[in-house]
Amino acid sequence: MSIRVSIVATRTGDDGTTGLGDKTRVPKDAPRIAALGDVDELNSAIGVWRTHNLPEAVDALLARIQNELFDLGGELSIPGWTALKDTHVQALDEALAHYNQALGPLKEFILPGGCPAAAQAHMARTIARRAERAVVTLARTEPVNPPILHYLNRLSDLCFVLARHLNQATQHPETLWIRQDY
Fold first, then answer.
1. Per DSSP, which regions of the chain are E strands?
2. Taking 70 as the threshold, does the pLDDT of residue 120 lie above it?
3. Do β-strands 110-111 and 25-27 pair in parallel, antiparallel, or remain unpaired?
């Protein structure tokens, strides 16, 4: 990917279209653009998450993930170009196993919240799920590299596990769902 942006306000999108990395123009509400936007929002949410006081290893993991999400977005913006590989998904699986091993079993559903960093992890998790749904929608009409879907699925799982890990590390109790008898 060698395209670099030097002018931000080109006005070429004033007609409701946007340019892809291969220079084709598509409507701003096209499934590919929706998927790109959700991945970009996810990357931004992780950026906000990283502003919290995180353990060094978690911050380093999230930094790597941000770069991989940028590559994933690049792949979405250039039809036919491949960036993500199964090894990226495998690395998320390894992180999941690492952080999950010290957590207790789930006895009830966990509500988003806890310490501020864990709450932000839950926000990233929900955005990852939305990005995944957008890529599924795109894959119905255009070819999508399978590791993209696997990556987003694992990433949302990892965000959940990291939220639990961060609450445990800060000795912050998880917020459990309380069953209501209606």
1. 17-19, 25-27, 110-111, 175-176
2. yes
3. unpaired
Residues in CB range of 62: below 8 A, 6 or more apart: 46, 49, 50, 54
Phi-psi sector, 9: left (phi>0), alpha (psi -120 to 50), beta? beta
Looking at residues 49-74, what average pLDDT do you find? 97
Please state, as a whole number, how many other Cβ atoms lie within 10 Å of the Cβ of residue 3.
Answer: 11
Cα angle for residues 20, 21, 26 (degrees, 5° grid): 10
Say what angle helices 56-77 and 146-169 make with each other, to 10 degrees.
Answer: 160
- Beta bridge mates, 25: 19
Distance separating the N- and C-terminal Cα atoms of the chain: 56
Q: Give the distance from CA 132 to its chain's centroid.
A: 8
Percent of all residues in the chain with a pLDDT value above 70, rounded to a whole number: 92
SS3 171: coil
**pLDDT of res. 1:** 47
Residue 176 three-state SS: strand
Q: Left (φ > 0), alpha (ψ -120 to 50) or beta: where does 16 sit?
A: left
Model pLDDT, residue 96: 97
Res 7: pLDDT: 62
What is the model's pLDDT at position 4?
61
